Amino acid sequence: MTALTRDDLRAMALFADLADDQLDLLLDRHRETSHQIDQVIVMEQDWGESLFLIRSGLAKVRSYTADGDEVIMSLLGQGDVFGEMAALDGASRSADVVALTPLRLVKMRAAPFAVLLTQQAPFALALARLEASRLRDLNQRFALQSADATTRLLDSLAYLSRKSSGSKDPLALIPPLAQKEIALVAGLARETASRTLSKLRSRGTVVEEDGQLRLVDAQPLIKRGLLEG
């Protein structure tokens, strides 16, 4: 993959309104790294003065309950930024970020990012929109905790599609993932997720293409109120 450029940054909604010199400030001394599946990028309670931008791949933001059960808070895909809150407020990281697929990351210094937020209202507003989008995703996931298994799995498959496609397409191919990861995203027991997925396959709602899952159409999502018609 080629080195990150101004145009690459500007193509992302968060950085679209920044001038060339401001983009150069963010790119100053940035580092690009590659990470394999299951690699922990940041750990909960760690301290950090850097933030990260995903160039390609899919990651999960996870925490653990008091009983030691893993909970996936959100997913991160191409163009997403993470680590910005700890970098800005000086607090420790609030969750782990772990690679679900091979990841290509850009590590940037937090100081220029913070300076631009105080100087550029459109940039601060773009970050607020990003955080609001994440909060909406989180709210929907929590709202569905009492829903039936099929609804929760459909929502999670669409979420995986949107995040992995880079185009927010709920019908895009989902990268090959361990079934336990799909179950964790849905907040279901692995056995329940497996039975529900088999049922969706038998109905033709979900298909497998070259080892990758895909929802066939949006109607089941619309019918269950998971997607606007």
- Treating each run of at least 4 consecutive H or I residues as one helix, how many helices? 9
Tell me the CATH superfamily of the largest domain: Jelly Rolls
What number of domains?
Answer: 2
Tell me the overall shape. globular
Tell me what the CATH architecture of the largest domain is.
Sandwich
The averaged pLDDT comes out at 91
Major sheet characteristics: 4 strands, antiparallel
Can you tell me the CATH class of the largest domain? Mainly Beta
Write down how many β-strands occur, each being a DSSP E stretch of 2 or more residues: 10
Strand content: 15-25%
Strand order of the largest sheet: 1-8-3-6
The CATH topology of the largest domain:
Jelly Rolls
Task: Look at the helices and sheets and give the structural class.
Answer: alpha+beta
Q: Radius of gyration, Cα only, in angstroms?
A: 18 Å
Low-confidence stretches: none
How many angstroms does the end-to-end distance come to? 37 Å
Topology as a string of helices (H) and strands (E):
HHEEEEEEHEEHHHHHEEH
Helix content: 40-55%
Structure description:
- The chain has 229 residues and is α+β, with helices and mostly antiparallel strands.
- It folds into two domains: 6-138, Jelly Rolls; 147-223, Arc Repressor Mutant, subunit A (Orthogonal Bundle), CATH 1.10.10.
- The chain is built from nine helices and ten strands.
- The strands form three sheets. Strands 1-8-3-6 form a four-stranded antiparallel sheet. Strands 2-7-4-5 form a four-stranded antiparallel sheet. A two-stranded antiparallel ribbon has the order 9-10.
- Strand 4 and strand 5 (70-76) form a beta hairpin.
- The longest helix is centred in the middle third of the chain and has 23 residues, at 121-143.
- The chain is globular, with a radius of gyration of 18 Å.
- It starts with 5 loop residues before the first helix and ends in a 6-residue tail after the last helix.
- The mean pLDDT is 91.
